[in-house]
Amino acid sequence: MEKRRPGRPVGRSDIRDRLLAAARDRFLSMPYSKVTTREIAELAGSNLAMIHYYFGSKEGLYKAVLGHVAEPLEHAWQDEHCGHSLNELLNTYYQVMAPNSELTSAISNALANEKSPGRDFVLNRLLERQLPQFDALLETMKSNGELGEHMDPDMLKVSFLSMMWQPFVMKDLYEQVFGLTVDEAFMTRLAAHNCRLMENGLRSSVI
């Protein structure tokens, strides 16, 4: 008879899913520091031991939630049709982010707090997918003569990442100072504007 792993729950395979759902509800509606594993366990009808068993810690559970929420964006980076041009890469990003309020909120909250474990997750896991695509695009554009010699690749990279991330990091400021509503309609409008801005800027840079 096969010996079961010590501490392994028997006949309760849905516990992990319930914990993840409860954590998603708490982490996406409250600051990381305000959420407790005890309340997550109670909401899931489980206990702290199961959180430790499946996720190791509060931080592990939080990163699992972020990974689950970020799946649509990660799938977009893996799309072989994405990234043929800067415009396509930016459009793909906005198309995923615009209708996904949970993803937008999760990334915004994670980046806003320097001490949040979610910040490292976003920077390391998501950006590592974006930057290689961007670098490859720059090389292709150079080879095709689409990028002027005087264009600084590092500054272009900074500008591109700013276009991608700033709307979500600065969401509250946009709404409070400019009276804008950062919703799906706004993101669609911003995507069109940034694509035109980038296209015209790159075209004018070619000598």
TrEMBL record:
<dbReference type="GO" id="GO:0003700">
    <property type="term" value="F:DNA-binding transcription factor activity"/>
</dbReference>
<protein>
    <submittedName>
        <fullName>TetR family transcriptional regulator</fullName>
    </submittedName>
</protein>
<dbReference type="InterPro" id="IPR050109">
    <property type="entry name" value="HTH-type_TetR-like_transc_reg"/>
</dbReference>
<dbReference type="InterPro" id="IPR036271">
    <property type="entry name" value="Tet_transcr_reg_TetR-rel_C_sf"/>
</dbReference>
<dbReference type="InterPro" id="IPR001647">
    <property type="entry name" value="HTH_TetR"/>
</dbReference>
<keyword id="KW-0238">DNA-binding</keyword>
<dbReference type="Pfam" id="PF00440">
    <property type="entry name" value="TetR_N"/>
</dbReference>
<feature type="domain" description="HTH tetR-type">
    <location>
        <begin position="13"/>
        <end position="73"/>
    </location>
</feature>
<dbReference type="InterPro" id="IPR009057">
    <property type="entry name" value="Homeodomain-like_sf"/>
</dbReference>
<feature type="DNA-binding region" description="H-T-H motif">
    <location>
        <begin position="36"/>
        <end position="55"/>
    </location>
</feature>
<dbReference type="GO" id="GO:0000976">
    <property type="term" value="F:transcription cis-regulatory region binding"/>
</dbReference>
